[in-house]
């Protein structure tokens, strides 16, 4: 049965870095919704570069539909497990919006709640800003005013997802994202083995 490990945290918490390390450690495929969105914007499939460049979430329902489609393909490809970062970013993406089944309900229905784990990387706002401003990748969403918006959106829209996941009995592991990437990875490994 496929296993699903979701990695989430504020900007700069090391989601992608940790997701890639876990993917290599377990031999799981890696899916990043942020990369998915940037790829589709670049190809012209979806509009939203301006919204992303201001630090706001992409349209919740269309991002959910696109992510479910790409994840379904990865599952069909025979992946023994998936590491997923960047989604769900809202209660609606997790549990449904406007007649569209949420990502977590969708996976639970087909694979079971026990096959899903969430790792929440915690990081202070100050450290998040510092890391993103020094990232040097030239991303449109790594400017100070945009970062402040992204952090506000994370706090108001994404953090409540973890409260609801815990309430519904999902496995949610809180990990301090402040130490070195190797230390954070070692802490995560204690929970995924």
Please render the helix and strand layout as text.
Blueprint: E1 3-8, H1 15-26, E2 29-32, H2 33-43, H3 49-53, H4 60-76, E3 81-85, H5 91-95, H6 103-111, E4 116-122, H7 125-133, H8 144-167, E5 171-176, H9 181-192
Parallel strand pairs: 1-3, 1-4, 2-3, 4-5
Helix pairs in contact: 1-9, 7-8
How does this structure look, described?
This protein has 193 residues and is an alpha/beta fold. The protein is 54% helix and 15% strand. A five-stranded parallel beta sheet has the order 2-3-1-4-5, with helices on both faces. Helix 1 crosses helix 9 and helix 7 packs across helix 8. It starts with a strand and ends with a helix.
Radius of gyration: 16 Å
The stretches of 5 or more residues where confidence is low (pLDDT under 50) are: none
Relative helix content: 40-55%
Please count the beta strands (DSSP E, at least 2 residues each): 5
Helix-strand pattern, N to C? EHEHHHEHHEHHEH
Shape: globular
Q: Largest sheet, if any?
A: 5 strands, parallel
Brief account:
This protein is α/β, with parallel strands linked by helices and 193 residues long. It contains nine helices and five strands.
């Amino acid at each position: 049965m496929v296993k699903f490990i979701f990695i989430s945290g504020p900007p700069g918490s090391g989601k992608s870095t940790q997701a890639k390390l876990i993917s290599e450690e377990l031999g799981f495929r890696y899916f990043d919704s942020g990369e998915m969105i940037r790829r589709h914007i670049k190809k012209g499939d979806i509009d939203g570069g301006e919204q992303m460049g201001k630090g706001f979430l992409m349209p919740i329902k269309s991002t959910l539909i696109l992510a479910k489609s790409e994840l379904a393909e990865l599952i069909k490809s025979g992946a023994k497990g998936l590491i997923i970062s960047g989604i769900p970013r809202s209660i609606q993406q997790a549990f449904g919006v406007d007649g569209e089944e949420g990502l977590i309900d969708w996976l639970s229905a087909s694979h079971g709640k026990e096959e899903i784990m969430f790792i929440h990387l915690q990081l202070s706002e100050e450290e998040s800003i510092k890391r993103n401003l020094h990232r040097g990748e030239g991303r449109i969403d790594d400017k100070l005013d945009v970062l402040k918006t992204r952090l506000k959106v994370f706090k108001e829209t994404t953090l409540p997802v973890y409260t609801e996941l815990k309430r519904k009995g999902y496995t949610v592991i809180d990990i301090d994202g402040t130490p070195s990437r190797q230390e954070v990875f070692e802490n995560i490994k204690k929970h995924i083995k």
